[in-house]
Amino acid sequence: MRFEWPAYNDEWRGNRLTAFKVYRVLGEEQGSARIIDVCTSDDIVDQIALATPRPMSRLDVPAGLRAEWSHRLYFPDGPGPDARVLFSLLSEVLSIRVQDVDVALALDWYKIPPDEDHDWRNTDIGELRYRAKYYRSSPGLMRAARDDLVDLMADVMSRHPLYAQADAIVTCPGHDASVVSCGEDLARRLADAAGLDLIATQAKTALRPEAKAGGRMDLSDEFSMPTSLSDLTVIVADDALQSGHTMRHVAAAARRAGASRVLGLVPVRTMSG
To answer: What pTM does this model have?
Structure first.
């Protein structure tokens, strides 16, 4: 039996849709049916199925195309006018698996892996996040970076059918309840920009270990929502995703409050998790 390299290698830290190709199906009524070959991970195909309002089924990729395409999708009524927008978006952002979150997206990685000439450098989005969080001595630059990140996050929301249907933005509490964290401020700004309600997640513990310091506590019963989220679609927004530990438990709290769908949105995903 001949071994075949897969068209796409799944990355546990985050995945993108690296390519897609649309085919018209001949002989179908009104010519609306389409086949779309994609090169991506299983979870992104699941996300497409969740986000696409029209019927979609999965077909076997022909043997001669398996080195190029990982999945073949069939849309008997066509994929809809916004399909290319969604597919293009999924080629730009990172899709990340987080427990209790239906879909989690990051605008980009935080860092660029080192090469012969450079050590770890920030991506463009990573540099904005760095300024948004750490430029305390330059408040004007800090505010400008936060504004830029919110504009980019709002753009993702407008281009993704699931995010465009959200009812509210939910905060991820910072480790120190006595201050408003960068992530909480971004969530507030994003809610204002999108015209959505802001749900300020409540935390039991006033001071938790910082994630970047390697500290982790049991958050199973740490968070709660201040109001019912019955049948709402909510977006848990933060400034970065490392392990997903905090987002996961905030999402679980949102579900306990009745949320029917929980999405995640952050500017950056760290390379370690």
So the answer is: 0.93
Kindly list the structural domains of the chain, giving each domain's residue range(s) and its CATH number in brackets, ordered by start: 19-90 (no CATH), 93-269 (3.40.50.2020)
Q: How far apart are CA 175 and CA 125, in angstroms?
A: 23
Q: What is the pLDDT of residues 79-129, one digit of tens each?
A: 998 999 999 999 999 999 999 999 999 999 999 988 777 788 999 999 999
Nearest CA among 157, 160, 166 for reference residue 85: 160
What residues does 108 pair with on adjacent strands?
Answer: 268
pLDDT bin (cut points 50, 70, 90) of residue 71 is very high
Percent of residues, the chain, with pLDDT higher than 70:
94
